[in-house]
């Protein structure tokens, strides 16, 4: 097994996420360009030019290359599960030099910069187990500006679903231009505090324009897209029709006394890339 | 209106700029985030190794690469300006800043300082890091890199036609952000 080669694959995965946006996001931004005018159109135009330039030049589209965040689905029959964590951590260090990435991990108290994008609990990796012998890694670099607009609401169950919707709309209006709209908003409803936020973030993995399979939840997503866009906040908070590109909702069962709502916000640079590693060590960045 | 400004510019030019105008700047700009604001305000003015009043202030923590010829900008879009709100009025007064470049807008304290000291706040498209880097011609200096680290250090950029910047808070009390909040 050539672990150095797999590490190269993970570096390539990170580079792809940092320099190229998924087609679904680009398509959605191009639609926004069509409907906007004035200052809002200027913003979307700059975003689209920036996306092209980053891809052509192989440079990160945003200077905030984020906290390196990975969602890993491990096939239980993959023969080298114990090596995966070190492989990802080493790849992050290597990518910091090679892509390059901005050194974004600092000590929470002293602010000392670790300089290689690693540190306590970082990169942040979520592990899931699946059947088979392949490993799927999704890279979701998460910028600070949008992450700062995350919210947790421990609502009173009596406010019902309308209360949940009002909470989300109010928070996104308060966030205004700060998370670099047009954003993708991920919402987790139910579970406990941590699970609601986790579901919100995980829902960002879903492509833009894809609705929840549950019809009631899908309708709620559509209603929230409309209500947030009707706020007029617009691209970069400078006014316009497009404040969100999409809203994704995922749910969990909850305690009867709790109605947790977790909001994870992703900027227009909805960076995602995925790779597969096969049991023989071969890999592809999708 | 669209303006192409060669920095530095005087109060007469700043007064002309109104909310909604588009500006491109050429000349020197310096980056400063929260820590740089804090540090510069703690220092004696004579200990600041450059003249901030000759430059635009850019809220930015760039991604830089060191080459054998010096520093190269890889990606350098704006950072969220509201983090600097607690420092900005004092910063404008102390260092004679008259053009701020950032994203997301600023609050009431800055709004008052913009009017008192004749300064504008302009918005650059957040996340447009590659596009911004493309407008930087040279990186003549960096200060406090060891103490503050790459994103927080003060970088001096020589830029050409840096923009489009949207005047979003002007020196006459106008603010796109406040108007949108009111609905």
Describe this structure in words.
The complex is a heterodimer of chains A (286) and B (183). Chain A has helices at 3-19, 23-35, 38-57, 84-98, 144-147, 160-175, 193-202, 215-229, and strands spanning 69-75, 124-130, 135-139, 151-155, 183-191, 244-254, 259-266, 273-277, 283-285. Chain A is an alpha+beta fold and 286 residues long. Chain A folds into two domains: 3-16 and 61-141 and 271-285, no CATH class; 144-266, no CATH class. Chain A has a five-stranded mixed β-sheet with strand order 2-1-3-8-9, covered by helices on one side. A four-stranded mixed β-sheet of chain A has the order 4-7-5-6. In chain A, helix 1 (3-19) packs across helix 4 (84-98) and helix 2 (23-35) runs antiparallel to helix 3. The radius of gyration of chain A is 19 Å and the shape is globular. The model of chain A has no long low-confidence stretch (mean pLDDT 97). In chain B, strand 6, helix 4 and strand 7 (120-123) form a beta-alpha-beta unit. Chain B has a single domain (2-182), classed as fumarase. Chain A binds chain B through residues 39, 42-43, 46-47, 49-50, 53-54, 57, 59-65, 100-104, 106, 111, 113, 115, 143-145, 148, 176-178, 180, 232-239, 267-269, and chain B through 20, 22, 35, 60-63, 65, 74-77, 79-80, 82, 103-105, 123, 125-134, 149-152, 164, 166, 168, 176-177, 180-181, 183.
Report the mean per-residue pLDDT of chain A as an integer: 97
Question: How many domains would you count in the coordinates of chain B?
Answer: 1
What percent of residues of chain B are in strands? 25-35%
CATH level-4 homologous superfamily of chain B: Fe-S hydro-lyase, tartrate dehydratase beta-type, catalytic domain
Instruction: State the helical fraction of chain B.
Output: 25-40%
Molecular shape of chain B = globular
